[in-house]
Specification:
With about 160 residues, this protein is α/β, with parallel strands linked by helices. It is built from three helices and eight strands, in the order βββαββαβαββ. The strands form two sheets. Strands 1, 2, 3, 6, 7 and 8 form a six-stranded mixed β-sheet that branches. Strands 4-5 form a two-stranded antiparallel ribbon.
């Protein structure tokens, strides 16, 4: 799985002009599911995201995690995180997960977020969405479960 995580002061997503998800301070997670991904990758990715110390403490240092600041989460599916642009000018998406399996893992990931935070805001899987955000910092982090240490707890 791949995620582009942005610390935001606010973010929202619209489908057909209607807001489907909206948050204040927290994290916007653009989530891509790959062909070989399963629940283990979703577990590992959320464990890392939920514990990342990306929020400032009283001294202005990034020492606080999402739960420490009562932050919200907006998760938006984004298969284009699996774009392969090595050949030609048209991206290939052959490494993206099968839509049915990806939808299931997207829902599972959102359930993980909900279990930790009590709530999750979402886009609409597979829809043409408009995402708006105010990136705080800016603070943007790229995560790929292939790069996260398997079997080790997230720090």
């Amino acid at each position: 799985m791949r995620a582009l995580v942005q610390r935001v002061t606010e973010a929202s997503v619209r489908v057909d002009g209607r807001v489907t998800g909206q948050i204040g301070r927290g994290l916007l997670v653009l989530l891509g599911v790959g062909r070989a991904d399963g629940r283990e990758q979703a577990d590992r990715l959320w464990a890392k995201i939920s514990r990342m110390r990306v929020f400032a403490d009283a001294d202005g240092r990034t020492n606080l995690a999402l739960g420490d600041v009562g932050g919200a989460v907006l998760v938006v599916s984004q298969f284009t995180l699996y774009a392969d642009c090595r050949r030609g000018n048209r991206p290939s998406f052959t490494d993206a997960g099968d839509p049915a399996a990806a939808r299931e893992l997207y829902a599972y990931f959102c359930d993980l977020v909900r279990a930790t935070t009590g709530e999750v805001q979402t886009g609409s899987f597979g829809a043409d969405m408009s995402v708006a955000l105010v990136n705080d910092g800016p603070f943007t982090i790229w995560l790929d479960t292939d790069d996260l240490a398997a079997g080790r707890p997230a720090r």
